[in-house]
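Appendix B, record 7
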Amino acid sequence: MGNVSYFTPTDTAITGLSFASSSAVLSSALHPSTAPFPIAVLHVSVIDSTIGTESLSEAMHTALELDDVVSSSWLDTIVLQTALGMRKPEHLAVDRAFRMLLDRYHVRRILLAENVRLSGSSWLNGIHIDTVRPHDASVDLSGPYIARGTEDGGLDVYPVYRLYPDTYRTFVYGMYKPVDQWAKTEGVRYRTFRKMDRMGNLLIPVPSRMYGVAADGALAGRRIGVKGKSIGHGCATMLMQDLFDVKGVTTGAGSRAYAALYGDARKTASSLVTLEQLGGVFVGKTKTAS
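Structure tokens (predicted):
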């Protein structure tokens, strides 16, 4: 999408979204028979109980400038939520400047949290508006996701990873955190990712920084380099040499025989558990050769 490769594990959804209005009808773009499509969940600030153009502009700027996973291609469908933990009614005030902002980023559909009330809807001709509620209120979505229509008329939501080619041949393999492990900050069972691009470079799955917006810990939403090349626009990325155990994946210590003998690790090394507890996310293991 947009000349960038992405990966989405679709075995388990993070959560589902139900349309609040019983009369809401899924457009053909959201029907379960069509291909999954990108959405961006934006947390907008509230001034005097109102969400205005400035709030939306700031949320879009934050997503596009601070996160290398999001691009303007993700803004076709946006989900607007107010600040985390706020559930009182807020008003979305739409005017000419608001509409110009939507047109600039080619927004075609807006999904509103239940506590957001719309005013100035005359400026939204041609923009599809719906109200949605998450199936699991404890899941705070933020950033880019892939959505897929369900048979009951709702949406399933899945995480997305940007795939960076390992052009320096730094990695043994990439890894990612399965959805059923997302709530854990310790003892996470990772999965390996061993896909390659057409040039034979390993592809390393990197999650959105925005996924850590609601997490606790000094490293929440950050990628920190333990050793190895950084990935993506100079950002720091959490890597480790293939000498440290990570639950669910193999430690080779530079030896295929060692990897074959011991198989997948049953627990994560204590030093890496500390990084997990601080909110860090592992994206791969690097080779032991310097």
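Remarks on this record: Residues 6-158 form one domain. The radius of gyration is 20 Å.
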